[in-house]
Design goal:
By secondary structure, the chain is mainly α. 69% of the residues lie in helices and 6% in strands. It contains six helices and three strands; from the N terminus they run ααβααββαα. Strands 1-3-2 form a three-stranded antiparallel sheet. The protein is flat and about 55 Å long.
């Protein structure tokens, strides 16, 4: 087993003691790993390609949808504001990576597509990006990567189910509140 990082190297995990709940320790470790990987990917994208992670993610969305995407869908998929998507679209259009066309049915709506130049650039960068991710996770070994993948899948389902139950509870509470309000209003009106 590989040794753990020293306290001065582990960032978010450093302040957590062994008497903390294991779930808190696990969440901070997941967050630390994700942050470390993202930081390294951001640095490499910037250094080797002069590209931000936001631009890479934007191009990846369009690469998955060769027919193009409306800007509001891009915004939703990227989980950023419409203003952020507009800024990225302006920059990438100026660089010749995307084209933007207004829609016949709604002149205020734009469809964004990768240009041939944008597709070639993204595919080149994506291939290198994949190599970085393989490198960063390579020390785990195939069986450990698969086990981690499976466990994180189980966690994702559990979290999704919890969020679904929470939403259902909120909807039930709201329905009960509305029913109580109607009953109170009916009583007052009688």
């Amino acid at each position: 087993m590989e040794p753990l990082l020293s306290d001065d190297s582990i960032g978010l995990e450093a302040g957590v003691s062994t008497d903390e709940h294991q779930s808190i320790r696990l969440w901070l470790r997941l967050l630390s790993c994700s942050t470390d990987i993202e930081t390294e990917i951001r640095k490499r994208l910037r250094t080797q390609f002069g590209m931000t992670l936001a631009r890479f993610d934007y191009l990846a969305q369009l690469h998955r949808h060769p027919e193009g995407l409306r800007m509001n869908v891009l915004s939703r998929n990227l989980m950023v504001t419409g203003g952020n998507v507009t800024g990225l679209t302006d920059e990438l259009e100026q660089a010749g990576f995307v084209s933007r066309t207004s829609q016949q049915e709604d002149r205020r709506s734009f469809l964004v597509c990768l240009t041939a130049k944008g597709r070639r650039a993204f595919e080149k960068i994506a291939q290198v990006h994949e190599g970085w991710v393989v490198e960063l996770m390579g020390g785990l070994g195939d069986s450990n990567r698969q086990q981690l993948y499976d466990l994180l899948g189980q966690l994702r389902v559990q979290v999704s189910n919890s969020l679904g139950a929470e939403a259902a509870d909120k909807a039930a509470d709201k329905a009960a509140s509305v029913a109580a309000s109607k009953a109170a209003n009916k009583t007052i009106g009688d």
